[in-house]
Amino acid sequence: MGTLNDLSIETGKFGAAAISDKTNAFNEMLMEIMAGGPKWYEVGAEKYRQMRAAGETPLPKAVYLDSAEEFAVPSRDAGRDVPCRIFRPQNGNPIRSVFLHIHGGGWVLQDEKSQDPMLQDIANRTGVLVLSVGYRLAPEHPFPAGPDDCYDVAEWLVDNATSKFGVPMGFVGGESAGGHLSMLVALHLLQHSVPRYADFRFKGLLLHFGCYSLVWTPRVYHFQKPRVLVLDRDLMEAFRDAFLPGMSDADKMHPSVSPLYADLESLQGKLPAALYTCGTEDCLLDDTMFMSSKWLMAGGEALVKIIPGAPHGYIMFPKTAEGSGADEGLDAVEQFVLSKLN
């Protein structure tokens, strides 16, 4: 009788042979584009944001949709609101749930207006109302400012989503730093001292190439390309230094900073289902593999979608971009969300 394997991974997804010619060509194009402009820490965060808005950085400026609505949620600070952006289905579908979206950008870049086409597409495909959070950014507002804003919006939605939008919040998710903050939000509510928050249950988490350890997983050190493919260790460390200035490694490992170190076993029976996606040409691939494995070990449902050859940020590229993998990621989101709503 053969030995049974207690951990099964589709290893064929991770080899070079699994990467299509179109994806290799897309990545080559990205590396060439990324080499054509300054890094954000060379010009400063504020200046780089201005350049990005003006289309003066390697990646194109954001596309704003008329269908998006400005919205604001009260923060814990008197007189200060958290800016948000709302996307409703535009195809006649009824709203079935609220999706709290948290954008990426290394806790330093982008905002709630950065991903209009992708978020409108998700709303149309699934019937969710998407509410994207404009949390405060580092280095002007280091930890815990950004997470606190996300917690405030999540708690407000627990209390008010049904009365305001007709349906409760069902999902939270985001990309990169947004995946990190989404995981923190889920754990924040599960471990809350107030019963109405601790008893709240998400239908699902949507976690794309998140960073779950701020002391880095091995691939952050080992992932090397001849040119920067969206994200590398130098960029990661610049983002971290802005977000966690002066913080010791021991403090960076605290679960309120690095959710990979959270005690998930204490939350058995309470963890929501989670969709994890990541490309194999991403320095944060280990984060997805490690976090999803811990989720499963603690009894949670984890659906892991690996996109061969996809780079960091893949799902944020236009879904028409051949070789990006964005269409595969969005299809996985649609299938996962609809499965949890049906």
TrEMBL record:
Keyword Hydrolase: yes
Hydrolase among keywords: yes
Superkingdom of the source species: Eukaryota
GO MF annotation, one: hydrolase activity
Keyword annotations: Hydrolase
A Pfam family this chain is assigned to: Abhydrolase_3
Domain Alpha/beta hydrolase fold-3: 100-315
UniProt-listed PANTHER family: AB HYDROLASE SUPERFAMILY PROTEIN C4A8.06C, ALPHA_BETA HYDROLASE FOLD-3 DOMAIN-CONTAINING PROTEIN-RELATED
Name the record gives this protein: Alpha/beta hydrolase fold-3 domain-containing protein
Annotated organism of origin: Exophiala oligosperma
